[in-house]
Amino acid sequence: MSAAPRRLAVLGSPIAHSLSPALHRAAYAQLGLDWHYDRAEVASGELGQFLDQAGSGTAARPWRGLSLTMPLKREVLPLLDTVSPLAASLGVANTVVIDDDGRRHGHNTDVDGIVRSVESHHDARPASATILGGGATASSAMWAAWQLGARSFSVHLRNPMRAGELTSLASELGCDISVAPLTELGTLAPLDFVISTLPGGVADALPLRPRSASSVLFDVAYEPWPTRIASTWAADGGIAFSGLDMLVEQAVSQVRLFTGLPQEVPLDDEDRVRSAMRAAVGLATRSTSTPPATSAVA
User: What is the pLDDT at residue 126?
Assistant: First the structure.
């Protein structure tokens, strides 16, 4: 792990609300690294220009990596020198590692973040999953649910005509998929496992109902928390938790990549690093061995 000064940032639009700087700064402080992590407003169509202008940074503090959020997770792919197999399959990269030669290497840590955050709250092994939304995060959510055991998917989005990438992904995974508009959610029976990738506020009035006390709603929205759908789901007896856990866990994977450690190699004293990151965004401390949560809203 190089201790040389490095520069990193999260890019996207809008970006002023991003908690990634707080997470990464806490991690690098724990690891004793003189790394500077910031945020930059980069809208759709501007990423190539940003990367060209950034170059490799300065000699004193060269670039090491980028975290990407909407709308850049798909746009970045043709701008990369290499793409990990997972990111290539999904067509989604949320992480760019920049090596000493300035080459850009794309990865997806969203899947890992979703899987670990679900497993930290619940021992869910769903046979089927309902996914709300059709953007880049929805693709990661489908792959994560597949890793957790789902083999059929019900996808609901505002415009079903935009479900092509999810339909192709389900076919690649060998899974069944049905696609319908969000307006049809009210006609569904109670659900067991739902991942909402919709922006904050969009899902507020959706009529979601849990099937049982062990039914899970994972809402990637986290500000403010609990969201209206999470509150309703919990009031009906289900388990609801937010995307803030996912944000932390995908960032833990990014820190591994930025520091040069493979995904399967833990960070030095990883629980200490994770605890510092969770504290930085107001989450209670937990370790990777924490048992599933039993509370309705986590």
Answer: 93
Report CA torsion sign: 56, 57, 63, 67.
negative
How many percent of the chain have pLDDT more than 90? 78
Q: What angle do CA 240, 93, 298 make, to 5 degrees?
A: 15
Q: Write the DSSP symbol of residue 16.
A: T
Q: Which residues pair with 153 in a beta bridge?
A: 129, 177
State the pLDDT at residue 2. 58
Q: How far apart are CA 179 and CA 201, in angstroms?
A: 22
198 DSSP 8-state letter = P
pLDDT band at 57 (very low <50, low <70, confident <90, very high): low
CA–CA separation, 18 and 251 (whole Å): 12
CA dist list (Å): 222 to 198, 226, 234, 282, 293: 11, 7, 15, 12, 18
For residues 54 and 86, the answer to whether their CB atoms sit within 8 Å is: no
- Supply 140's token pair: 């990661």
* CA–CA gap between residue 114 and residue 121 (Å, rounded): 11
Tell me what the mean pLDDT of segment 238-264 comes to. 91
**H, E, C per residue of 218-253:** EECCCCCCCCHHHHHHHHCCCEEEEHHHHHHHHHHH
**pLDDT score of 290 more than 50:** no
Q: What is the DSSP string of 241-296?
A: EEHHHHHHHHHHHHHHHHTT--TTSPPTTHHHHHHHHHHHTTPPP--TTPPPP-SS
CB 211 within 8 A of CB 192: yes
